[in-house]
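User: Can you help me understand a structure? I only have the sequence.
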Amino acid sequence: MSVTGTWKNSYGSVMSLVQSFGGAVSGTYQSTTGSSGTFLVAGFANPNAATSSRGEDLSLSIFWRSINGGKGDPSWHWVSGLSGQKLAASGSDTPATLNLIHAMVATDDFPGQASVGTYLDKLIYLPDPLASTGAGESASDRGTAGIVTGGNPILGTWLCQEDSTLTLTFAEVNPGSGQVQGSLALSGDAQEIVGFTDPYAQQSGLSLQGTSVSTFLSSSGRSMVLAGSLDYGTGALTLTQLLSQGTASDQTYVQTRGATLTFLQQP
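Assistant: Let's start by predicting it. Here is the structure, written out as tokens:
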């Protein structure tokens, strides 16, 4: 068992995911709230499958710029982080579910939708085998026509101000899709990160660059997403941390712990 499959939440949004053997997750999201379109998803899930006594934790990052093209709007600069767990099915009447805390990061005002800020919600997804699936889309395959391909200000190593043992390193940014590659080091334990940053923020005149990255901490067996924004004015990268563990089905209230972390770039 894994998080591979097509999942639908109470808003009618559909998320199609593929989990690799090592726990990396990729896929697409089709939203029915705010702007419509198809959006890329990247993240990690615990390589250990959910059981009847313990869920499978996972963390996912989304960049809300539709890969279908079309007319954009302010939400095309936004990112999200989702973290929680998959609970195994319990008999034919109780299907598997994804129980996720959602941090949506709005970096540009969208009249009638949301002003700049981070918005939290709890989302529950059920299997939706009849839905169309876009899982397997590759963010790195997306075109870059008309996009400035120079250095992105997110590139480099960032030190957490609340925990000096925690650093983030952004090694590469795809200038079209915004997909990032890099690593997270916690107390000397380095892990791969995947996710997205908004490569269009500067050229669009924004003051904030949305960023969301996910990882799996093998030393503690927990999944983490960091979602927030880089403030061009202060140079600070402020991220909401959602750290998740698998729990029993009657203890989901302690599955995800939240915190706000600030990172400064190292010279």
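Now, to help you interpret it: The longest strand covers residues 117-127. The chain has one domain: 5-135+150-265. Let me know which part you'd like to focus on.
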